[in-house]
Amino acid sequence: MPRSKSARCAGWDINLPPRDLRLSLHARIIAVLTMVLGCGAILLGFLAWQSTSLAAQQAYDRLLAGGTIQIAENVYLQGDVVALDPPVAAVATLSAYDMVFYKVVDPRGVVVAGYDDLSSRAKPTAIRQGVVIEDGRYQGQRVRIATLGRQIEGTQMGGWATIIVAQTVNARTALAWNLAAKAFLIIGAMSVLALLAVGFAVRFALKPLTRIEQEITQRRPDDLRPIQASPPLEIRNLVQSIDDFMRRLSERMAATQRFIADAAHQIRTPLAALDAQVEVLSNMPPSRRTPETIDRIRGRANELARLTGQLLDHAMVIHRADTAKFAPIDLNAFAKATLATGVPLSLPREVDIVFQPSDVSPVIPGDVISLREALGNLIDNALRHGAASRLLVVVGAGEDEAWVEVLDDGKGFEGTPSELLRPFAKSLASTGSGLGLAIASEVAKAHKGSLSFEREDAMTRVRLLLKRQEFEPNGMS
């Protein structure tokens, strides 16, 4: 078996398929057309042989029939005996191409001339209407036999005489092969010309693919603009798919770059503060090290740990938006379980927590992990920065959508919805990383839903709206 080639790039081994398994589109088209033209040439050759054989046979059958009629005209009645004037001209015409045998039988059945053992299967009624020609064998050779009846009129010798003429088929076979060979030559030449023309046409038609290939090859890795070369109609959808893929890849790369830049900026601040607190503590004499200083350091460490966790959660949510497979989720049971795990065992204040399920128990297609992170962040935000004494988690459902609402009696958010949903944006009424609402918004978009805010009756309402429509297995509708 052929050995596959391998290349080494950036420390990774890349196995390339054998060359014979990587046929070009040009070679495949030529191979298919070669088979089609070959089959067509064989079929045309067969039809040409049939036509030439028929033409040769008809031409020689006319000569054979004419010779038989000439011999019949030379049969006459002499007295009471049927006689034959030797048909020199007719025999000479027929024997110029093949061997000729004949026989003349009078009305009594007596052979008056020719070969006694020459016979015909033609019926008497048929030969009285005209010449009957058939295939046969005589003296071990293939022959064509012509049979004709002639009426003899006389007082005693009345009736029908039978004239049988046989001719070998060598000349007509040679003529058929000669005509067929010329037809084969024409068919072969036309097939070769057609194949050359197709090869040229395919190469010309595939030139736009070469231009597209060159354009993509010459681009920098960060150049994800749409392809500029005009594609043929047949591959326009393919090029549009490539452009759409590059657009989504560009958006994902831009989001990743923004996330990395924001994460680096956000992590740098608590790290600097933590370093400063540790420096202050290390320079203090042991007698002056107070629990307040240690608590501040512990708080900074907890803040950094929470920020790191949310950063990882945000990256995970962005990744799963296009890759996670959706499964049916009972929203009542899901929201109840998330609330139970999202509320800590102890809180710094007394908070009344209420769960209100939907009456219809809606089932939605979704990613359990991403939705748990989204709802968990909403509950955590409400407990940390909102709820003064009351927190509600409400599940609702409509005909085409379902939702989970987190309500608290805190002061609410300050800022526009676009500002609140931007990563690392913070409400003026709260402290934190500003990632919780961004994570919930990303999850809502991945589920074809939305995240909204509302302030009503001294309660802040955050609604996670989800569609109840069917989704494809890869998570896209």
Largest sheet: 5 strands, antiparallel
Coarse shape:
rod-shaped
In the CATH hierarchy, the third-tier topology of the domain at 324-477 is known as: Heat Shock Protein 90
User: Treating each run of at least 4 consecutive H or I residues as one helix, how many helices?
Assistant: 11
What is the compact description of this entry?
This protein is of the alpha+beta class and 477 residues long.
Overview of the structural elements:
With 477 residues, the protein is α+β, with helices and mostly antiparallel strands. Among the domains are: 99 residues, 2-Layer Sandwich (Beta-Lactamase), CATH 3.30.450; 154 residues, Histidine kinase-like ATPase, C-terminal domain (Heat Shock Protein 90). The protein contains eleven helices and 16 strands. The strands form five sheets. Strands 6-5-9-8-7 form a five-stranded antiparallel sheet. It has a five-stranded mixed sheet with strand order 11-13-14-16-15. Strands 1-2 form a two-stranded antiparallel ribbon. A hairpin with a 2-residue loop joins strand 1 and strand 2. Helix 1 packs antiparallel against helix 2 and helix 6 runs antiparallel to helix 7.
